[in-house]
Design a protein that fits this description.
By secondary structure, the protein is an all-alpha fold. Among the domains are: 234-304, Serine Threonine Protein Phosphatase 5, Tetratricopeptide repeat (Alpha Horseshoe), CATH 1.25.40.10; 847-938. Helix 15 (252-264) packs antiparallel against helix 16, helix 17 (287-299) packs antiparallel against helix 18 (306-318) and helix 45 (779-791) runs antiparallel to helix 46. It is elongated. The N and C termini lie far apart (115 Å). Residues 1-40 and 917-938 have low confidence and may be disordered. Belongs to the PPR family. P subfamily. This is Pentatricopeptide repeat-containing protein.
């Protein structure tokens, strides 16, 4: 009675609130008129109700009513009164009348109370299916749940009450539950419980099961707690639901505890319970424990069923233990159980994810052979699997097959195909698939839009990616943070940071809160672009919004500062990360090790390496590689012994050395001049099958620098015998070494050989030959080779220009030298001062002084320093021809650029006077040069 009283009082109060108003005398006449009308209407309704009630007693009641004028008098109030007046008569006839009257009133809404009368009356006669239908229609009126419950409970009071009360409540809970209105179902249950109406355990268990299935965990615990409060004793199915709920929220320990407690309370778990626990353990990764539980079932007289085995197969497949999964399948057959679609689909999915497509297809054929028809899920697994392994044509074949046997593809079928075509940049095929989806009236899901946006970002079409996002929002789909993160990352990768920031800020406008992944995408990109201050701004914003930075956030800053050589800041962020309880990964440790190595701080590098091992982080080959490279590459001591100790340690840590490690050590040995050890390492590399061209290049270079050209050439031939292809670096090393040794013919042979093998020489190769020809005095060959190089589109560098310029000077072709210098200056390059020395010396010999002054100014402008002998020769040349103006200008330039110290000026003047042709020229020079000297001393 408590619930009825509460609900009725709520109903009365609501009506009172609606009626409450300030009295208005003007409304008096209207109220009187309305009351008079109401009395007349009520009298007519009563007469109609009596007529209908009399006719309902006859078998041909419908004909009687339809042949009268009663249909015109029908209204919801009349129907309600008829039902109430005849509630104890034939409920089925009343239901028929109710349906007929609804159609007569044009399908208009019936009085809510009419539904209640019918439902209660039908339950009194145990016509529960009919009662359920009535309550379903009652719910479809979309009246509030409390209003519906209030109507039913008032009807119970008006009808005198009966044992059917609980059944009506149970059926109402069931109706709401089956229609998916779980909130309303829980409300009915809780309100009924508070009013003393306790639904049976079956009803409670059904509600609990559906709540778990729909992840309605908050409502689940409300119902379960309500059951315990009402002293409803849980049974094995209740406990099974509770265990399932705990597994859903990943509370594995809690689930284990409930299983133990239910047995203690005398409730023996059945196969369903064990299946729930086994399924939960498999999903949480505890597959071995699930197998132990399955074994224990036999001791309790329980036999694992098809679901038990299928769950274990799925669990093993999730852990990539595919051979064990096949053994479980065999065991199923051995115990007389036939695997079902779920079992086979789990296996197919497992093998497809591992790229074992042949085995997946074999299992598919086995399914068909056992009479199991593939469904949409299985076909989607196959399509997705083939797309992941890159066999898109086979995926299309599977798609055609499923359509041919009458299985309609859904959006999930097309999504992996679209993704694969985007990966292969086949945009026409993507368009065709989207068109086919449109023809089939398949709307893209958030997942599909995510694939499209990711694909467009991958193809660099960021503008269209933005448009797709806008189209998605306009179509009523709300993007999630994952999708936004993809778009932000796409813009960041193209260095479009302003747009990435705009998208991040626009998320909130669309009701999506940025997560750590969104911020990380931006922060990582900014750190890579060396925009550390901007990255810090977003780190602060991220923390202010309650998001916790993770190892990727800190890793971005640590890596950024390591690359910038700011190791103090890198170490500070590393310490802060550890203080926040974030465990560092191998990538972060490797960045720190590399950073300290590059700074030459091997002590700190080893400190980071030791900390890595202490924290249980397994170094990978990259970690060892940077440390080994650091020992000889950046450290002045070149500690090769320590590097080899690390090499010996690697196998014990489960990290096999790779070609990069060996190449680094070979390089280190070569730099240290230990060619014997370097050679031994290279043979070891060949034996292990990962000898590389780069490692042999280091070895050949080492022998060449040691002057052992014969051994270097033998290595070159050995390299070819081992099917290792020499590259342009290999040939350049040999060409350079032969040229330096004066063996230009051998160098030429290698130069021709590399081109026959379609290995293009680069600027270093040509420069090596220039040096060789220049040293041998073969300058014509040098000039011809230079022209050939330029014709091939290889841009000369400063060294090449310098060598050619020097050769022109030696040949006395000063015009070509001057033109070359002009070309170099136009290109913004800087020539070696030796070229200027040689050119100025040659010009002075030819008395071409205007060009000399021009060259002097150009050389000084490029920051070059001419030596004192060149300056002396220049001054002597000016004095010799009596060109005192230019002598003064030249000396001024020399002093301005700091080529001639003030202490040497007097000496230069005196030397010039001694070579002067006349006393007049000497007197002039004294006056002009003294002025310059005074300026310098000032």
């Amino acid at each position: 009675m408590g619930l009825t009283f509460a609900l009725r009082n709520r109903h009365v109060l609501a009506k009172a609130k609606r009626r409450h108003h300030v009295f208005d005398p003007k409304s008096l006449n209207f109220c009187t008129f309305s009351h008079s009308q109401s009395q007349t209407s009520t009298k007519q309704n009563e007469d109609t109700v009596n007529e209908i009630s009399a006719m309902l007693k006859q078998m041909n009641w419908q004909c009687l009513i339809e042949s009268s004028d009663i249909p015109k008098k029908l209204n919801p109030e009349v129907v309600r009164s008829v039902l109430l007046q005849n509630k104890v008569s034939n409920p089925k006839r009343l239901l028929h009348f109710f349906d007929w009257s609804t159609s007569q009133m044009g399908g208009g809404p019936q009085n809510l109370y009419s539904f209640s009368i019918l439902a209660v009356s039908l339950c009194n006669l145990r016509l529960y299916a009919h009662a359920s239908g009535v309550l379903e229609r009652m719910v479809m009126t979309q009246k509030p749940v409390l209003e519906i419950l209030d109507s039913i409970l008032r009807c119970r009071v008006d009808c005198g009450g009966s044992n059917c009360d609980v059944m009506v409540i149970e059926i109402l809970v069931d109706v709401y539950r089956k229609m998916g209105f779980l909130n309303e179902a829980v409300t009915v249950f809780l309100e009924a419980k508070n009013g003393g109406f306790l639904p049976r355990l079956l009803c409670c268990n059904s509600l609990l099961k559906d709540l778990v299935k729909c992840n309605g965990m908050e409502l689940f615990w409300k119902v379960y707690d309500g059951m315990l409060e009402a002293k409803i004793s849980p049974d094995v199915y209740t406990y099974s639901n509770v265990i399932n709920a705990l597994f859903k929220v990943r509370n594995v320990e809690g689930a284990r505890k409930v299983l133990f407690e239910m047995e203690e309370k005398g409730c023996r778990p059945n196969v369903v319970t064990y299946n729930v626990v086994i399924g939960g353990l498999c999903r949480s990764g505890a597959v071995d424990e699930a197998f132990e539980l399955k074994k224990s079932m036999a001791g309790k007289g329980l036999v694992p069923d098809k679901y038990t085995y299928s769950t274990l197969v799925d669990g093993l497949c999730r852990q990539k233990r595919l051979e064990e999964a096949k053994l479980v399948l065999e065991e199923m057959f051995n115990v007389g159980l036939r695997p079902d679609l779920f079992t086979y689909t789990a296996l197919v999915n497992g093998f497809m994810k591992e790229g074992k497509v042949e085995e997946a297809l074999r299992i598919k054929d086995e399914m068909v052979a056992h009479g199991i028809k593939l469904n949409l899920v299985t076909y989607n697994v196959l399509v997705s699997g083939f797309c992941k392994v890159g066999d898109v044509e086979k995926a299309r074949t599977i798609l055609k097959e499923m359509i041919a046997i009458g299985i309609t593809p859904d959006t999930q079928t097309f999504t992996p195909l679209i993704d694969r075509y985007y990966q292969e940049k086949k945009l026409v095929e993507v368009y065709d698939l989207l068109l086919e989806m449109k023809k089939r009236k398949l709307e893209p899901t958030i997942s599909t839009y995510g694939v499209i946006i990711n694909g467009l970002c991958r193809c660099g079409d960021l503008q269209r990616a933005n448009s797709v996002l806008e189209q998605m929002i306009a179509g009523g789909l709300k993007p999630n943070a994952v999708l936004y993160s993809t778009l932000i990352k796409g813009h960041v990768q193209e260095s479009r940071f302003d747009e990435a920031i705009r998208i991040l800020k626009g998320m909130r406008e669309n009701g999506v809160l940025p997560d750590a992944f969104c911020y990380n995408s931006l922060i990582i990109g900014l750190c890579k672009a060396k925009r550390m201050e901007d990255a810090k701004t977003f780190l602060v914003e991220m923390i202010e919004r309650g998001l916790k930075p993770n190892e990727y956030t800190y890793g971005a800053f640590i890596n950024g500062y390591c690359k910038a050589g700011e190791m103090q800041l890198a170490d500070r962020y590393f310490r802060e990360m550890l203080e926040c309880g974030i465990v560092s990964n191998d990538v972060i440790y490797t960045a720190l090790i590399d950073g300290h190595c590059k700074e030459g701080n091997i002590t700190e590098a080893f400190s980071a390496f030791r900390r890595m091992l202490e924290q249980g982080v397994i170094p990978d080959v990259q970690s060892y590689s940077v440390l080994i490279h650091g020992l000889y590459g950046y450290c002045k001591s070149g500690n090769l012994m320590e590097a080899f100790r690390l090499l010996d340690e690697m196998p014990s840590k489960g990290v096999p050395p790779d070609c990069f490690i060996y190449s680094a050590l070979v390089n280190g040995c070569c730099k240290a001049g230990d060619m014997e050890k370097a050679l031994s390492l290279s043979h070891e590399m060949v034996q292990k099958g990962f000898a590389s061209t780069s490692s042999f290049n280091a070895l050949i270079d080492g022998f060449c620098k040691s002057g052992k050209l014969v051994e270097a050439n033998q290595l070159f031939e050995y390299m070819i015998d081992k099917d290792l292809t020499p590259d342009h670096v290999t040939y350049t090393i040999l060409i350079d070494s032969y040229c330096k040794a004066g063996l230009v013919k051998e160098a030429e042979q290698h130069f021709l050989e590399m081109q026959k093998k379609n290995i293009m020489p680069n600027i270093v190769t040509y420069t090596s030959l220039f040096c060789g020809y220049n040293n041998m005095g073969k300058r014509n060959k040098m000039f011809a080779l230079f022209e050939e190089m330029v014709a091939r589109g290889i841009e000369p560098n400063e060294m090449a220009y310098g060598l050619i310029g020097d050769a022109y000077c030696k040949e006395g072709d000063l015009m070509k030298t001057l033109k070359l210098v002009d070309d170099v200056l136009v290109k913004g390059m800087i020539l070696d001062s030796e070229i200027y020395d040689a050119l100025i010396y040659s010009l002075c010999k030819k008395e071409n002084f205007p060009e000399v002054l021009k060259l002097l100014d150009g050389a000084g402008g490029q920051g070059l320093t001419l030596n004192l002998p060149t300056c002396r020769a220049l001054i002597h040349g000016f004095y010799k021809v009596g060109n005192m103006d230019n002598a003064a200008k030249a000396l001024e330039i020399m002093i301005r650029f700091g080529w001639v110290p003030a202490s040497n000026i007097s000496g230069l003047i005196n030397e010039g006077q001694s070579v002067a042709n006349s006393e007049k020229s000497v007197n002039i020079s004294k006056q002009e040069i003294s002025g310059v000297a005074c300026q310098a001393e000032a």
